[in-house]
């Protein structure tokens, strides 16, 4: 028998807008935090800058907080982007939430394997 592993997708949504925040937006914010640039983060993730911008703007609107602090570039172009204090707080809280859910999934998966064998 091959080794089996559980997998799941996790996101937070609202009644008004599905998919407010989840693994994809968390990865994007983490990459922005590392790169200091939304454009570089979106390139690394293989998504368009426009999609990244729109996704995070929708999340900000739904969550009611500003996730990013953006600064436009000057004469040479290019700006920098960093996470706001709310963005850091939400990213870190989501990571803890995801870890707790993952631990629960693993526990229940082990129960499933016992019951299935």
Task: Report on the architecture of this protein.
The chain is mainly α and about 120 residues long. The chain has a single domain, classed as Arc Repressor Mutant, subunit A (Orthogonal Bundle). Helix 1 crosses helix 2 and helix 2 crosses helix 3. The chain is elongated.
Q: What is the CATH topology classification name? A: Arc Repressor Mutant, subunit A
Residue-averaged pLDDT: 90
Strand order of the largest sheet: 1-2
CATH superfamily: Winged helix-like DNA-binding domain superfamily/Winged helix DNA-binding domain
Distance between the termini: 11 Å
Q: What's the CATH C level?
A: Mainly Alpha
The biggest sheet, with number of strands, parallel, antiparallel or mixed sense and barrel status, is: 2 strands, antiparallel
Summarize the structure.
With about 120 residues, this protein is mainly α. It has helices at about 25-35, 40-45, 50-65, 85-115; strands at about 10, 20, 70, 80-85. It is elongated and about 60 Å long.
């Amino acid at each position: 028998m091959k080794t089996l592993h559980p997998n799941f997708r996790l996101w937070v949504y609202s009644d008004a807008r599905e998919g407010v925040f989840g693994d994809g937006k968390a990865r994007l914010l983490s990459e922005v935090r590392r790169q200091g640039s939304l454009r570089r983060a979106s390139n690394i993730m293989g998504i368009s800058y426009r999609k990244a911008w729109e996704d995070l703007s929708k999340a900000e609107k739904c969550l009611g907080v500003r996730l990013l602090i953006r600064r436009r570039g000057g004469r040479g172009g290019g700006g920098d982007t960093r996470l706001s204090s709310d963005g850091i707080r939400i990213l870190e809280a989501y990571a803890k939430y995801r870890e707790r859910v993952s631990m629960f999934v693993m526990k229940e998966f082990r129960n499933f394997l016992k019951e299935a064998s």
